[in-house]
Amino acid sequence: MTNRVRLAPLAALLVAFGCSKPPAPAQPAPAPAPAAAPSAAAPDSAARAAARRDSLAAVARADSLERTARERARADSVRAQVQRAQVDSAAAAARSGLSAADSAVLAEAVHFDYDKADLAAADLPRLDRKLAIFQAHPRLEIQIAGNCDERGSDEYNLALGERRAAAAKRYLVAHGVAAGRIDVVSYGKERPLDSGHGEEAWARNRRDDFVVTRGVN
Amino acid sequence: MSRAALWAVAVLALPGGLAAQDTTAPAGVRVGITYTPGTRPSIAVLVAAGAALDSVRAILGRDLDYSDRFEVVAPPAAAAALGADGSPNYRALNALGTDFAVSVVPSAPADPRARGAIDVLLHDVRSGAVKNRLTLHLADASAEALRRAVHRAADEVVEWATGAKGIASSVIYYVADGKVWRVDPDGAGRELIPTAGRPSLSPARSPDGRTLAYTAFVRSGQPIVLQDLASGRRDIVPGTEYGMNITPEFSPDGRRLAFAHGNENGTDIYLYDVAGHTTTRLTVGRYYDNLSPAWSPDGQRIAFISTRPGLPQLYVMQADGTGQEALARFDFGSTGMTYAPEWSPDGQAVVFHREVAGTPQVFVVDLATRAVKQITGEGRNEDATWAPDGRHVCFVSSRGGTRLLWIVDLETGRMRQLLSTVGARLPAWSPGHASLEAG
């Protein structure tokens, strides 16, 4: 098993920078009441059946209201997350000592096809632009975070995200960046940028994020 | 554990706890689908009038119903009434075709020392005889302790009547809102397990019931945490301090923990020796991933997910990593991605979920014939876990519009919703442990 001991100071730096802080996913508040069930010993009268029908209808109504509310919350949360990400990355850039332009280039995400961890040819220039920044700032270190869309199991997507992060690292290392300057992590489908359920949202979520873990000074 | 010891731990107290129990059910929680009762024995739960035992009757009746081994019936008042000596009206119940009756009566109402003690008796109605009995000491029992004591009584009744193990006293761990929770299989007793890291994923309990293993998302990585459930003490599995470490599962003897470790070269399955603190590698993927180990109940084999055919499919190997082969048949290009295996308690089957036209569904593969059977069809259904009785499966389902935990009885196809918690996932069903779950 790989023993990445030197990550310990890195982890401390991460705390110091606070730049790997994820946007909190907007979750609908879980209903706290556990579902108990009707007593099986109770008489199955007509009144009871009617009550059951009514309660089922009420549940269906509540579900549809809940769905509408969730959709609205989703749109709001995507907007809020994008804003938060912009604020976070601007703050991180200030701490990293990189210029705003370099920070933006470094933070450019790369995207993946469904269930794939191959870099898209169209994304390679995004990685090439980062190479120059690594060359100009020999102290710079980053973390690449692999992310997935909501399809596939929670657990499998962690493995897939790891491959996605590793793919970008492999490319950067093959082009001269010391392997020790790049850490990889997978968030699977735990940190979607877009909590939607269509191809548009999925494409946005299948990505590598690049986060500065050690500044240039 | 001996029966005497089992009941010894339930020695607590009665009236206050009983009053705290609700006997009415929240609305709309049981949405039965394709429910075929078949020919099951009928059973009636009868309580002494005026003894404040309605909550015991409700919990017991529900547990027996959820065992799916009985038709729980409610006889008319005349047949349901217990005699002055607490005995059921065998003649009337027999005339109604009732096979079994469970009576719940105060142990010795006249004896102040027996305060809070209740007797639970199983009657064979046809022969008009008591088949078995036990005493619950519930004086001053909390609502929680009462519920768990009645769950254990329900499991005894199931075993007396059918010879099979019940599931009422088992426990389901799951993840919701990035945190780990426990809940009883009747949906009650929901409780947060404070864990390290957010989210905490893939809870898996040790066979002795003492330790919970899970993946914790912390800043340094995703270690496997071993958490003592009684004290809350947490240890990190050595070697998992960094990188991605997922899908822990204890061997049936509790001595080893299989998990998947991922790094830049891919994800592979490792075995951690809990006492010896050593780790062995079982798979060498390099260009593909291996994860989600699932032990056979004899501890000899491990089912797992591998992406070696190009997309995740179900494989099996010996517990030393040799003899790796496909477990559930798949056709290249047409069989959907396959995830999350769990071996059945009787060792005869493995449950998993697989994409069908882009939607996950729960399947079971029979190990003798390798025949694969689809269990679900409505909505998205995933991450199934076996009940200790080997006939129920809990899984995540989106039927009804939101992702919730459901339970299906594989014998009858009866479905029920376990929780109304939206977004609950990664359930892990574990046997009950009287010594640890009491009070």
Number of DSSP strand runs of chain B: 30
The percent range for strand residues of chain A is 5-15%
Number of helices of chain B: 7
Shape of chain A: elongated
Globally, the shape of chain B reads elongated
Mean pLDDT of chain A: 78
Largest sheet of chain A: 4 strands, mixed
The sequence of SSEs of chain A as H and E is HHHEHEHEHE
Structural class of chain B: mainly beta
Helicity range of chain B: 10-25%
Description:
- The complex is a heterodimer of chains A (about 220) and B (about 450).
- With about 220 residues, chain A is of the alpha+beta class.
- Chain A has helices at about 5-15, 45-95, 100-105, 125-135, 155-175, 200-205; strands spanning about 110, 140-145, 180-190, 205-215.
- Chain A has a 4-stranded mixed beta sheet with strand order 1-4-2-3, sandwiched between helices.
- In chain A, strand 2 (about 140-145), helix 5 (about 155-175) and strand 3 form a beta-alpha-beta unit.
- The two termini of chain A are about 35 Å apart.
- By secondary structure, chain B is mostly beta strands.
- Chain B has helices at about 5-10, 15-20, 55-65, 75-80, 90-95, 145-160, 435, and strands spanning about 40-45, 70-75, 100-105, 115-125, 130-135, 170-175, 180-185, 190-195, 200-205, 210-215, 220, 225-230, 235, 245-250, 255-265, 265-275, 280, 290-295, 300-305, 315-320, 325, 340-345, 350-355, 360-365, 370-375, 380-385, 390-395, 405-410, 415, 425-430.
- In chain B, strand 20 (about 315-320) and strand 21 (about 325) form a beta hairpin.
- Mean pLDDT of chain B is about 90; it is low at about 1-35 and about 435-439.
- The chains are: A alpha+beta (about 220), B mainly beta (about 450).
- At the A-B interface, helix 1, helix 2, helix 5 and strand 3 of A face helix 3, strand 11, strand 14, strand 15 and strand 16 of B.
